[in-house]
Amino acid sequence: MSYAAVFAVGNVGTEPELRMVGQAQTPCTRFRLAMNVWSGGERRTDWQTVTVWGRLAEVCKQYLQVGSLVSVRGRLQTKPYERDGDRRYFTEIVGDAVDFLSSRERGGLVHDEAAPSETLTSEFAEADQVSVPY
Q: Whole-model pTM above 0.90?
């Protein structure tokens, strides 16, 4: 089995969206992560989609907001989909752990005391996830 491990640090760029998936109604939260990258003396922003599952999904929905600084550990997952008859691919980070590093809630990057201070991990870290078409 191959595994593309990812460690990313950035700011939450979209409001986390919680959905209940499948017959078991498994919580799934998706958000966009903005990461500043310096290349050739210029700064650009790279965007990644992050998906987390289970209790981790519920906690991320509750505590994350646009601008929150987080680190995400997980794996890359690429899914095919079709649009207008063309086969396309979508790559996302499936997060196994999320560290809440700070928040912009109080007008600056400070530790968010309301959020859990420990690393949160998903009980689905080892499980293969169902395809979520959204």
A: no
